[in-house]
Description:
By secondary structure, the protein is α+β, with helices and mostly antiparallel strands. It is built from two helices and six strands; from the N terminus they run E-E-H-E-E-E-E-H.
Amino acid sequence: MPYEITLELHRDGTPYGSVGERCGWLLARLARGVDEARQGRGAARRWTDPDDRFPDEEPDGELFSFRYRTRTGLVGGGELRCQLRTIPVWQPGSRRWRLIRRAYVEAWGSTGVGMRAVLTSAELSMFMRGLVHEAEGCLEGRELARNPGEGAGTGESR
Length: 158
């Protein structure tokens, strides 16, 4: 089953970088995880606003980090990563602080120039679903590997 894909990053139509490292199954799993968290499953239910709900593996942890590595192990060509951050926002009407969570998606091009987007869980869900849909479209209708029972993403190997 396919799970090794490379994402070609573009900025305003210009090639920006390449990332990958067998990230197909992780993209599909994270897309499902964000959708489940938005529905209030698991530890995410403690956040009242669905836009603050993300998969809770670590409070302010990293959801993914993809780099490009050559077959010989050299790193280069770009990076795409996503970190969760909890941010206090002052609510003047109630005169108190409210905690919100956002996903910081950062892309670094092969020249070292970076870009950042700050996303709600709804926006991250749309982004992840778009990546999965585009990758699966390249696979001519096959899904990205879920590897039921063995292999990538299950903690088991042979």
